[in-house]
Amino acid sequence: MSLIFRPQQIVLLLILCLQISLLTGQELPVEQIKKQIEAYKDDPRGPYDRIRWFCKDGTLREPKDPCPENIGGGVQHASYKPAVKQLAEKHHIFFGLILANTERLDFWDEANNHSMLKQYQLGNYLQSIDDGWIQRKSQFYRGAVQSEDEQEWGVEFYEKYLPNNDRITKNYYLLRQSLRDVPHDGDSNLAQLMRSQSKVISDEFPKFMDIRIKIHGNPSIEDIQLVENFINKNEGKIPEKVNTDLQTLTKTMKEFYAPLNKDILLAQAKRIRSSSPIRKQILEFLEGYDDAAVPEMTVPALADILCTIRSSITIDTSGRDRLLLLDLSNSIEDVLLKKTQDWQPDSLLGLMEKIRHLSLAAAGTGLIELWEWEKIKPQLETHLGNTSLSIEDLNQFLQTSRGVVEWSAAMVKANYQDVVDRYTQFEPLAYGFIDDRVRSSVALYLGESVAELGKKISEISGTSNEVMNIKDQSNIRGLNPGYAKGELVVISGTSENIEVSSDKIYIFEKPPSDLKPVAGIMTVSEGNLVSHVQLLARNLGIPNAALSDDNLKALKKYNGDEVFMAVSPKGNVILKKADDMSPKERELFGTTQRSSNKIAVPVAQIRLDVNKVLNMREVNSKDSGMLCGPKAANLGELKAMFPENVVEGIIIPFGVFRNHMEQQMPGQGVSYWEFLNSVFVEAEAMRNEEVPENVIEDYQLSCLNSLKQAIENIELDTAFVNDLQTKFKNAFGSNMGTVPVFLRSDTNMEDLKEFTGAGLNLTLFNIVSSELIIEGIKKVWASPYTERSFKWRQKYLLNPENVFPSILIIPSVDVEYSGVMITKGINSGKESDLTVAFSRGAGGAVDGQIAETRLLTPDADVLLAPARESGYMRLPKSGGTSRYITTFDTPILNDRNIKTLRQIADKARKTLAEKTNDDYKGAWDIELGFENDKVWLFQIRPFVENKQAKSSDYLSSITPSIDTTKQISLQTKL
């Protein structure tokens, strides 16, 4: 689960955190677990110790001494090795789970985001792809697991837990998926089994790899003939075990692709009690279903019944009936996946219809939420009743349907990423689990159809991407314009704690929240349009694009190559080898560097004579860069504009920091301030002597790190501390140490019209104790001298040494959800639009969470992306943070919130520049949150974009001029 705070804050948060999950209670002994796994693979008993009777009264008996009926009987199975039990108790890691003697409440494991249930599923996956994994030999340990007991346990588990409506509505996707793994009715997951068997064969016999790739990426009934032909062609060359595995795979595939046995499903449906409201609908559907009908008829019908089951399942209160309905849903999904492969549209209209119905199926199977489907349904029905659409309408349809694919994949990740990341530390094969789940869903076929539509629209409009000749390039789209040249680095898996370089181009699954400057970025998970990383990239003209999982995999082979990357203002993307650059592209990197784009932050007007703590009501935006940074100055302005929506606050101005910097720096013989300036004087001297820039940077970073550590231990002036305590009580009505507060870094080098500096320096959350506030002030003062903060300033500012931090102290507000609003459409570019992104809890959207993102036009509310972050933080009055788990069955923002956001934006646009006598006419970036539907405003700053990147002649030239109003016949052939 992702934290929503920056790494600089994590140490303090861990000290303050009152609710520490069992999952993070102790450091994981990775090397020890790796050794255990290898030992269990070679052990005839694997993770098990011995066979015992487990009696209902809690006693254990020997195998030949069954539990007597007068104590309730019991079940017989293996016990766990002591080391396995220790892993479970100390680290919440469960190997070789036997369900028959597992407490059902423990297995649901709600307190730990259903970790035990997910680990059971992941364990099954690892066994299927790795010859039994830790049960390589113990799968033959007779009596270790009794299948009939596991089946009985599974049925009772679901019948007990499914009557709870919240469990179904909030965890629909997880529950349906669990039915693929938890024994309960003798069912098997043939689609996953088929992929697992093909993987095992290709690992043992590499010649099979091409067929395995086909089965994984584009499965169809023709694969049966491919496998049979492979067996015949390689007769006599295939090892005996591989030949047996091939025969088993062929049998699995024939079973998977066998015609629908309607009688089986009818018999299953008839087991639903006759009084059930949905029973009649399902029976009518099954009785009228014709498996021989064309897929254009069957797929829509199957998608519709899947949604009917999902939307109606809570009407029926019986756990048994709900279990039957979910099983039917899974069976119907399997039929739909096979029928989808047979649907091969030959026109735009047919392809759009296929995408619409597969999107509905995504809702029916839990990949997207029902409210999300209702929100985008009108956009996926624009073609209905029309004979033609404009290119603009076609692109809108493409954007929406592409979103469904992304949201579907993100749903899988949101449910399983925490467990997969944990297991990947000691078992790299676990990483394939999420991909396997995506490929066993409608998302695979929907993604193929959307890619085909994107390719056709590019062809019609004369636009296309140029990305290394990989497949499905229409899934790639630019997020903000720019160009770069550098080594390509492709990172799959977690990107946290990865050291990056400013002269390289990175492809991430998800960018790290504390990303340092890089030359270019491509991400599978863009997070949201207004995260700090996105805003910094947009500000600096760093080319940034989104791509699919498959695109990332296709680009892995270019890892380490020198490449050129460009993103146009309209979202076209170029990625090519540097050797293939055109003369015009080479000219972009001539001797004239983009340093001319740097700005100098004015420091002449800074008031360093003010050495007292200020009440926020005493300042306004005119004081920005003089007494304090823009956060405090603008918040003081907001307090006057929205007195009921802005908290009280106090400010530690620049002068207090500068005064403390006159102290002698320990061990240096000079003051802190003299030491700081000497670093930059020496750096300039080194440049004059033509010392390489990387050597100069290393020198500066080393010195600044020493300065940072010294400032963190600086002695605070007694008069200042006394003043702080007095002003604290005056502003907040209580003594310091009784009111939880935020400490926000607020330098003179951020939130400028030309440079955002978003998220570069430290903010400390919800601190109560006086001691932590005092220590926090030093940490905030020191934070501008971190490597990340310095590197971003170096990249854009001419005088990064003249950084002056002030500190804004405001009381914590325990908001239910929080986020960012930009007073323009980031993608649309329209000044009348709003772009908003919100996540649950505190710190929402700014650190790259997959947030609920909307485009608010004057007359519409468009869902750009729903939230897909399962973890969030709240701020208790006792201080620190509390961590919670959420689901996605309801939207974050309601209609009242949307109305409030429009009002806030309208007032900010009209009055902020007027009140400040400023000539700024651009958009505003506003951080805010909601508590019981009341909006709280935390920050406002200019929304900064890189004008050079947006106006570059070259970037504009790579997107041909398009008449987006041109009408295209929907009968256009594919």
UniProtKB/TrEMBL annotation:
One Pfam family matching this protein: PPDK_N
Pathway assigned to this chain's UniProt record: Carbohydrate biosynthesis; gluconeogenesis
One Gene Ontology molecular-function label: ATP binding
Cofactor(s) needed for function: Mg(2+)
Alphabetized SUPFAM superfamilies for the sequence: Glutathione synthetase ATP-binding domain-like (SSF56059)
Reactions that this protein is recorded to catalyse: pyruvate + ATP + H2O = phosphoenolpyruvate + AMP + phosphate + 2 H(+)
EC number: 2.7.9.2
Gene3D superfamilies associated with the record: ATP-grasp fold, A domain (3.30.1490.20), ATP-grasp fold, B domain (3.30.470.20), Phosphohistidine domain (3.50.30.10)
InterPro entries according to UniProt: ATP_grasp_subdomain_1 (IPR013815), PEP_synth (IPR006319), PPDK_AMP/ATP-bd (IPR002192)
Keyword Cytoplasm found: no
Keywords for the protein's UniProt record, in alphabetical order: ATP-binding, Kinase, Magnesium, Metal-binding, Nucleotide-binding, Pyruvate, Transferase
Positions of the Pyruvate phosphate dikinase AMP/ATP-binding domain: 627-952
Physiological role: Catalyzes the phosphorylation of pyruvate to phosphoenolpyruvate.
Family per record: Belongs to the PEP-utilizing enzyme family.
Protein name, as recorded: Phosphoenolpyruvate synthase
Species whose genome carries this gene: Constantimarinum furrinae
Organism placement in taxonomy: Bacteria, Pseudomonadati, Bacteroidota, Flavobacteriia, Flavobacteriales
